[in-house]
């Protein structure tokens, strides 16, 4: 520990970033391989693709709030080490199933539920840890750096997934396992991070309810959580179902096209985060957040029109620019506004809004695609998001959120 404090490169923030990077690098590999296996290898319908994607996301609805409560009552370092240990099992299981030629749809659902559950507990633990390892007064910078690590790692994982086109794709699950182990080592090198507060007289259900009340009593956090729920439902649902099916059914793509298209999106989120860092601190994040959320409606609507693969990738890139701004600013606002006593629970409600809306959107988009076709299905989430934004702009203080100390 002494050497860690003496060398800035080995500070707690360094090991936090190592853990963050490894997790999302492995998720980047999963982000390409999971829909590729369901759509291309198993050749499932739109509805079954939606259900499979939902299996990755539905555990957030069940466990995210519990994860936030546990993160406040336990050493978050120990939580992350346990999660990384358990997370090596699902990719190893898929590797052996693919090697034996026994891959089936049901196994993909099991994998999705397992990794989704681990993510539901990992997210509030990591978010709580960030506020503890970031120097005082630098929370905006810390959030931006963590977001950049997340996005760059996701992109790198997708690029690694392209290699599945040149050798047996199942071997990528071995690589995913090794990366997760490295993240666990990073968590082990962190100092102990005991909870800031203990609520021995308060049960877990009461603690969860207290965190929800805190969110909905805040004029700044409440609209952000509402926005992210519908972003998850309408934007992420379309992203996770419609885009992979377009690659398969319209462009007859391989895993290379999958990786290229999704890399365009995540590469854009990295670029927008870098630009935000250049202008940080952002004095009025609410206004910029409103513009970014509106851009998503525009780009999602454009998927209604026929286009070539190059135009499709450009549109993904443009959509990713707005998505990067949205993800960074919403997380920044919540980190700035949440009190220490409720931060983990508030962050878990925020994550629940984002991750909890996604499975509903994925399931709904699967049905819409089967009934209305790919081009018409995208109009439903785009039109619905217009109504959500009109409500938030007119009835909440979302556009008026300011950074602390801003006049």
Overview of this structure, please?
The chain is globular and about 50 Å long. α4 packs parallel to α7, α4 (59-73) packs antiparallel against α15 and α7 (105-133) runs antiparallel to α15. It has 407 residues and is mostly helical. The chain has one domain (2-192, 203-400): MFS general substrate transporter like domains (Growth Hormone, Chain: A, Up-down Bundle). It has helices at residues 2-6, 12-41, 46-57, 59-73, 76-86, 89-99, 105-133, 139-162, 171-189, 204-216, 221-249, 255-279, 285-302, 309-337, 343-372, 374-377, 379-395. Residues 1-8 have low confidence and may be disordered.
Number of strands: 0
Percentage of residues in DSSP E strands: under 5%
What is the CA-CA span between the terminal residues? 42 Å
What is the CATH T-level topology?
A: Growth Hormone, Chain: A
Helix content: over 70%
Radius of gyration, CA atoms, in whole angstroms: 20 Å
Number of helices: 17
Can you name the CATH architecture? Answer: Up-down Bundle
The residue ranges in which pLDDT falls below 50 over 5 or more consecutive positions are 1-8
Shape: globular
CATH C-level label: Mainly Alpha
Structural class category: mainly alpha
So, the CATH homologous superfamily? MFS general substrate transporter like domains
Sheet with most strands: none
Kindly report the average pLDDT value: 83
What is the element string, with H for helices and E for strands?
HHHHHHHHHHHHHHHHH
The number of distinct structural domains comes to 1
């Amino acid at each position: 520990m002494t050497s860690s404090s003496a060398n800035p490169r080995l500070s707690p923030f360094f090991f936090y970033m190592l853990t963050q990077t490894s997790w999302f690098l492995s998720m980047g590999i999963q982000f390409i391989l999971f829909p590729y296996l369901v759509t291309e290898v198993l050749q499932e319908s739109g509805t079954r693709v939606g259900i499979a994607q939902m299996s990755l996301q539905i555990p957030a609805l069940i466990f995210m709030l519990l994860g936030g409560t546990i993160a406040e009552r336990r050493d978050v370092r120990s939580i992350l080490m346990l999660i990384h240990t358990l997370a090596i099992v699902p990719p190893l299981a898929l590797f052996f199933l693919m090697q034996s030629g026994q891959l089936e749809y049901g196994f993909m659902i099991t994998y999705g539920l397992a990794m989704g559950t681990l993510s539901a507990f990992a997210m509030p633990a990591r978010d709580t840890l960030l506020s503890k390892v970031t120097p005082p007064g630098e929370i905006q910078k810390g959030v931006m750096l963590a977001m950049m690590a997340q996005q760059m790692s996701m992109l790198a994982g997708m690029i690694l997934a392209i290699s599945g086109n040149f050798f047996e794709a199942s071997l990528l699950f071995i690589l995913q396992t090794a990366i997760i182990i490295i993240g666990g080592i990073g968590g082990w090198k962190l100092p102990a991070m005991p909870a800031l507060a203990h609520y021995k007289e308060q049960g877990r259900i009461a603690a969860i309810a207290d965190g929800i009340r805190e969110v909905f009593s805040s004029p700044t956090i409440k609209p952000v959580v509402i926005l992210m729920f519908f972003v998850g439902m309408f934007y992420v649902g379309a992203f996770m179902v419609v885009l992979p099916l377009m690659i398969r059914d319209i462009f007859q793509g391989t895993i290379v096209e999958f990786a290229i298209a999704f890399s365009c999106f995540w590469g854009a989120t990295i670029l927008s985060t870098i630009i935000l860092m250049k202008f940080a601190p952002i004095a009025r994040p609410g206004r910029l957040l409103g513009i970014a959320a509106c851009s998503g409606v525009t780009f999602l609507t454009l998927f209604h029109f026929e286009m070539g693969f190059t135009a499709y990738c450009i549109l993904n890139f443009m959509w990713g620019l707005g998505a990067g701004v949205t993800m960074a600013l919403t997380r920044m606002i919540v980190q700035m506004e949440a009190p220490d006593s409720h931060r983990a629970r508030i962050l878990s409600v925020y994550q629940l809004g984002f991750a909890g809306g996604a499975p509903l959107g994925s399931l709904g988009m699967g049905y819409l695609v089967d009934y209305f076709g790919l081009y018409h299905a995208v109009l439903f989430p785009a039109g619905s998001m217009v109504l959500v934004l009109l409500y938030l702009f007119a009835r909440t203080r979302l556009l008026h959120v300011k950074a602390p100390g801003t006049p």
